[in-house]
Design brief:
The strands form 2 sheets. Strands 1-6-4-5 form a 4-stranded mixed beta sheet. A two-stranded antiparallel sheet has the order 2-3. The protein is an alpha+beta fold. The chain has a single domain, classed as 60s Ribosomal Protein L30, Chain: A. It has 6 helices and 6 strands. Bound molecules: zinc ion. Zinc ion binds next to strand 1 and helix 1.
Length: 163
């Protein structure tokens, strides 16, 4: 087995219409600043996956100065990373992730985020846990300046590699 952890942060723009989190569009009065779609949760999961397999980080695989990834769908980046991990002989077992945001309230989106993220990882939703918390108004997340996400992933040898 292999384990990996990931962490990501994106700042809110002054104005906007919403942002994508865990592959789900969340309407809000601000957007997240990013080269890609700014899906902070999927970026943390992608980094955890790359970490578990020992393949560096998301910035190495999808550089933010590369026009190919401008406005990129982070679900596609994660799906591509799952494929890279499989080629390296590893597949995901389960994920546990935490989103830290003072606002907006995320509770009603968790179930859909979980299902979308699980689908991208080719896993059943029950092994992809997503939690949301605030930082009790402390720090940059508490002041509503941005959103942070943490993820841990467990990997096992891919079926292909077991033959
Ligand atoms: Zn990111």
């Amino acid at each position: 087995m292999r384990i990996g952890q990931g962490f990501d942060v994106h700042s809110f723009s002054a104005a906007g219409e919403g942002f994508t989190l865990g592959g789900v569009w969340i309407p809000y009065e601000r957007s997240l600043e990013a080269h890609s779609d700014g899906d902070v949760l999927l970026h943390a999961v992608t980094d955890a996956l790359l970490g578990a397999v020992g393949l560096g980080d998301i910035g190495h695989h999808f550089p933010d100065d590369d026009p190919r990834w401008k406005g990129a769908d982070s679900s596609e980046l994660l799906a591509s990373t799952v494929m890279t991990a499989r080629e390296a002989g590893w597949q995901p077992v389960n994920v546990d992730a935490t989103v830290i945001a003072q606002a907006p309230k995320l509770a009603c989106y968790i179930s859909e985020m979980r299902q979308r993220t699980a689908k991208t990882l080719e896993l059943p939703a029950e092994v992809v846990n997503i939690k949301a918390t605030t930082s009790e108004r402390l720090g940059f997340t508490g002041r509503g300046e941005g959103i942070a996400a943490l993820a841990v992933i467990l990997m096992e040898p891919a079926i292909k590699a077991q033959r």
